[in-house]
Amino acid sequence: MAPSHTVRILDGSTFVVCEATGDIEATPTEPTGLFSFDTRYLSKWVLTVNGERLNALSYDDLQYFESRFFLVPGLATHYVDAKLSIIRERAVGGSFRENITILNHDEKAVDLQVRMEAGCDFADLFEVKDEILNKKGETYAEVESDRLRIGYRRGNFRRETVISSSEPTRYDRTGFSYTIHLEPNEQWHTAVDVQTLALGPDHRDLRIGLRVHGTERLALQHDLEEWIARAPKVNSEHDQVAATYQRCIVDLAALRFAPLSLGGQTLPAAGLPWFMTMFGRDSILTCLQTLPFTPELSATTLRILGALQGTRCDDFREEDPGRILHEMRYGESAAFEEQPHSPYYGSVDATPLFVVLLDEYERWSGDAALVKELEQECRRAFRWMDEYADLVGNGYIWYERRNTDTGLENQCWKDSWDSISYADGSLPPFPRATCEVQGYAYDAKMRGARLAREFWDDPGFADQLEREAAALKERFNRDWWVEAGGYYALALDPDGRQCDVLTSNVGHLLWSGIVDEDRAEQVAHHLVGPRLFSGWGVRTLAEGEVRYNPIGYHNGTVWPFDTSFCAWGLRRYGFAEEAAVIANGILDAACYFDGRLPEAFGGYQREQTKFPVEYPTACSPQAWSTGAPLLLLRTMLGLEPHEGHLAVEPRLPVGMGRIEVLDIPGRWGRVDAFARGRLDLHKLAD
């Protein structure tokens, strides 16, 4: 993972991670460089003046797609009276453009040798992530009169980086140089374009990165302004809430990913740096979080996931008919089937969640046409749940990877190797069935029944789905309840033995509606109790469990997205005050991350640390962490579509003051919601 002092700019699948000077000097194992569609197109980009490296005075994050660096030659102790300064301005918009300005502040003229070292290793993102760079193709460099072309070929797989400059320069195989003369108080400027090319077997451009000229930069700026204008406005007496919301809306714009087959339509990419691509689960959950604010993302997500729904049995990709994909990649390892992500279907929860999103989207938007358009995809999803996912034959959804070389062991959202365990800390055999997935299946069947009855003209199918849902709920509450603890087990093993640890997954069960009413209060108390609730958010694994670790990836950290769904679940069962408690914790934590919540942070008790402890390899920005404050706003305000109207039933903490959410879009047009904090969270926490 890139260290925290790196500077990041992004636009969908294209992003740059660099040092505070703007330089890139990547190692095979660090995600620094210029990346696009899972390939690193620049691994070295180092600017020198008269052979001297530059030192940073400051840098500005101008927008998510552009940054500016102010530099001087020499070490920090040498530039108190610097006579020369350098400004680097760069932007991404499919590709990469850098403007370099050099200013002479001396009273005499200077002659300068300006050099940019450029290198391209064309590393696949998986090679960087797995810390193995073992290229099997050949790299080449071609010096042309007006550009430097660096490429990589392996069979029919070919990628090129093409570098050109607005000012006369001398190109060589490892970069380009300028000789310039500056009079006193004179400045020199050049614009450098870096295009990223993917070439087909006939050498035809399959994809050409956009050249980020001034007009394209203005187009990006205009697009961002339109995106912000379409989103509801949030005003709050608690200044940080409005600021966090604004940061989230901008980050959602940055994370918009346009798959090659969609002609410019976008859905949320999962997160920077490792997951700037399409993920079934992540995109769906992000859309659920953001529906009241950015509903257009949901329609695109549903259409593309439906179009790529599984059609055959393929053990390498873990594809089945009706299964919704987990992950799609475009790099070398996917092209040569060294990784199965072309696409990969090893997710056990994306399929029921697909139906959940479609129903929720219709409730907000009234888009009956899309529900009818995706009827067969939904029917195939139900068939997958019933016929392909029930590996044990007891009516639950199970998983066990068929691709034992490169497939995921755990195919739930807690997908690290040790995330599923018994209370004694040992790991269960496969297949495994996790609790929240059964909740998603229950919810999908209940929602699918509504769609069948109201839109597909099939009341018989609706009745069938409701019967199946009722039977699932009865079985689940019998088999998964841990009587001694008063909560639901994390998972079952193939013999029906419970993985009887207390986890945040119980909050997802509340959200799905599968929890029996007479058990909901016990679950709610756990979610705000000292073992799960850190004061900042809900721990993934409860304190006191054998595998608990406050900085364990899924074994004790706080995931903001996870906490947001726990809050939504609490609200569903009428525990509005408890939902406000944990919502308040996450929103407080956001203040320490400048409004940009990371993928995860430490599960240490709030009184112990006074601030949320950063998780060292967390993605940031990450889509469902970005969506978390938006879902928490919805939860605290009690925003729910109801019979074609928007219902508002707020429950806010006292210290939050007044919140206004203006122009909430939906089938009702646009409406406003207002609330004032009235809950004493200190009493509730006690």
How does this model look, in words?
It is built from 18 helices and 30 strands. Helix content is 31%, strand content 24%. The chain folds into 2 domains: 7-199, Glycoside hydrolase, family 65, N-terminal domain (Beta-galactosidase, Chain A, domain 5, Distorted Sandwich), CATH 2.70.98.40; 231-683, Glycosyltransferase (Alpha/alpha barrel). Residues 206-212 and 679-686 have low confidence and may be disordered. By secondary structure, the chain is of the alpha+beta class.
Keywords:
6hp_glycosidase-like_sf, 18 helices, Glycosyltransferase, 30 strands, 14-stranded antiparallel sheet, disordered C terminus, alpha+beta, 2 domains, MGH1-like_GH
Shape summary: globular
What is the domain total for the residues?
2
Based on secondary structure, the structural category is alpha+beta
CATH class of the largest domain: Mainly Alpha
Rg for CA atoms: 26 Å
Low-confidence stretches: 206-212, 679-686
Total number of helices: 18
